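Possible regression after last week's pipeline update?

I re-ran a chain I had predicted before the update to compare outputs. Posting the input and the new output here so someone can diff against the archived version. Not blocking, just want to make sure nothing changed silently.
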Amino acid sequence: FDLKTNLVVNLPMDTSVPVTTLCLTPATIWIGTGGAGLIEFDKATRKVRQLTEKDGLMMNFISSLVLTGDTLWVGYGNERGGGLGRLDLPTRRLTSFTLSLKEDPEVLRHPSGNIVRESTDQPTHRQILAVAGGTAGDAWFATEEHPLRHYRTRDNMWEGIDQVQNCTSLASDTEQLLVGQRWNYFSQNKSGSLGVSILNFKDGQWRSFKEAEGLPPGAVTTLTLDGPNLWVGGMGYVALVNPVQDKVLGFAYVQAKVVDRIQVGGGYVWAQFDWHLYRTPLNNVR
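New output (post-update):
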């Protein structure tokens, strides 16, 4: 965290292939790539293992990763399509959820200006924009042009949450699921809810974070939980809110169309936007 490099790891992929997502655990860093599959880095041994389509991945384009228990949920996708899969860590078994193309040859059709919608009670063939864990090993995920979607592992059932649309980002803990939403693309709306919907796992009830004075409504692009608080990145701002109290604790405007990612570590909050990484001490904002 003093910005000095203490380790460089050469990944088994071409330098032109981007790293698209990371999932950190105490022992492992899971690295999703845009064309080279899934890479596992063991922190203790510093060994690297690569998984590709030859090993059972649905495709080599990974868009989202999240660990729930012993399951690594894998969101696949690019502009040509995608889907949802999982890696069972104890057995190293890969599973992909997919539809039969024999029944519906249109499911992968996604030309510009002619998007074919798909049923939300079946697996998706769309790019996964975000994925989060739920209770009982469930998975929540977002795809473009569809409402929030949910896979009930125990019942092997798929469903769409029609009241939660325009999803961009997800975050969850043992008590709640938080969904970032973006519908105010051109900032034409000046009033309305912030764009964070919250599901209480215990009672199954949804609620929306209220309107936040000074922040644009419906312009959320990334979420990161920080204990009881939530970091929200959006179109031109970074904010810290308390979802329980429905209160904005602080915010800052940034010169960026969107904030891509926010993380907390080393006594700092880190924000990525406009191809740069920024940080500020947490004691300045908490």
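Follow-up from reviewer: compared with the archived run. The mean pLDDT is 92. Marking as no regression found.
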